[in-house]
Amino acid sequence: MTTRRDLLSAAPVAGAFLALGPAALSVPSAARAQETSVPGPLWRSPSLREETAIAANGAITTAPVAGANERLAMTERRAIRVTPDIWLLAGWGIAHSMAIRAPDGWIIIDTGDSTGAAQEMRDALATALGEPVRVAAILLTHWHYSEGTAAWSDEGVELWGHEWLDRNRTASVGLGPLSGLFKARAVAQFGVFHPPEGPDAFPNNLGFTPERLLAESSYRAPDRLFTNGIVETLKIAGEDVTVMPNRSDATDSVGFYFPRLRLLITNAMAPGFMFNLSTLRGGPLRDPDPYLDDARHLETYNAAILLDLHAAPVTGEDAVLSAIRRSADRIRLIRDQSLRMIARGMDGREAAEAVEMPTSLREDYEFYGQVESQVRQIYNTEVSWFGNDVYDINPLPVREEARRTIALMGGREEVQAAAAASAAGGDIAGWQWALRLTSLLLQLDSQDQAARATRSIAARALGQRTTSSNARGWYITEALELDGNLLAMGRPVTIGEVRAVLGTPRREDLIAAGTAASLAFLRVLVDPDQAGETRTAFTLQVEGDETAWHIEMRNGVILTEPATVPLHDHVELTADELAEFVLGLAAPASDSPLAVLDAALDRSGFVFLPASPAAVLDDPAAEVHLLGEGSQ
Asked: Is 164 helix (H, G, I), strand (E, B) or coil?
């Protein structure tokens, strides 16, 4: 609402325009360019390359993506000697672990993706040292790589982590209405169901296989805690260790400085690739300001060795400082230039095309995420979804827009032919246009075989020519799905099926989550059309839960809160019975208040497999470590 204060504050501006006359309306050329249709050179993201390369596993890709393993020291699983007291354990996943020899035993930084991987790391370190490894302390940089704790846990080991680490991990693998969506999108981005070898294989270790996601976890919560936001020096295993915030891809992220060794260990503060402020799989923008504040703090340590979880070792004072500044300056430039373009009136897509980054910062570093994704998310965060086109306020329904556009272009056969010709043209713009045209066609008929075949060609071609592993995951997943070759246990699946399976909570997850979480999940199952004018209120007590709950349905919504006294309509259930009700596996008695609620719930998105999800989809739902708050 425009207030009187708003109008008064605008009055001097209006007066200035009136006083200056026509000269005040002379708009700068940069702003005026958006209101004209002067043709310019065809813009194309620098992350798209004409030239392809072959990765070690036969994947057709770009040179930066094919060379990622080598640049990140992940070509093989090995213990890398940095100094006699500093070892990098590399090649077991997207992130390294580290081992530091301290006066009272070894300090291990992060425990990897699984118990098995951690044990292999420990064995490799012992072999390289030629002696057994006695672990005195484990330090966790954040929750992502904390699954192999048991393999490193010798008697008396100290387990350190941020005070929010366990909470964040629990939230990431717990119950949530968007869980299936984010897990399915991660399956696409990280190429979980891509073939292990050949042109469509994921070309480097920045992806995930079903086997890696299903591996055994031996995580346990840290019992010695770092205080949030505090820089402190502690004595750990006889070694002075300074702990400082590293607010990069998780709010519980910390870094470490070892003064005796002049060693700095960071999490994504100086990775070997461009850090993602925003990921294609989704999630909120990672605030660049804390990241940049923490990067400035890292510069004060005058370190001679830098080990980042996602990079090869960096040695030498100048090289360490340069690595920290180079990573921070990329983020600083993306933030500042995004705001600059937004201030000039550009929407997210226009700003993404206008933000430029020096070649020295961008070239060959964009093999994980890509710049444009970050810019568009900054726009959404700072401004919202709406850009400058008033059509978008109340657009035609998507299907109707596609129907009218195709009719204007001469009909489906004409558009199919144009899409096929564009895909066959053998150039990046042609493949992009083929994707756009087939998007229209598939809105009208998702089973249009000609459109699906054309779209597969275009998606695969762009996937082979992007420097972004994240983008490649999406492109190749799309192509494989359209071809019927996105396979889980030898069975073709779609990302929609994956989303439905992974979005269907398991009975044991509902029970473990507790009453409050189960009722919160119940709220998002309400269909307002089914609910109609239904009104009901009752109290619920679940066996083993000290809290009774007041539940009310009105106006197509469910409200839940702790109850002070039981109502006349009162329901008592076991945790298992509540889980069955949420899942719709058991119908409540007709005279139960739950029956009224049940009639308003839509469970059509649930998929109950005849076997466990693991038997059909390799169960990437099982401890999918890369999902949840702030993950890569």
From this structure: coil
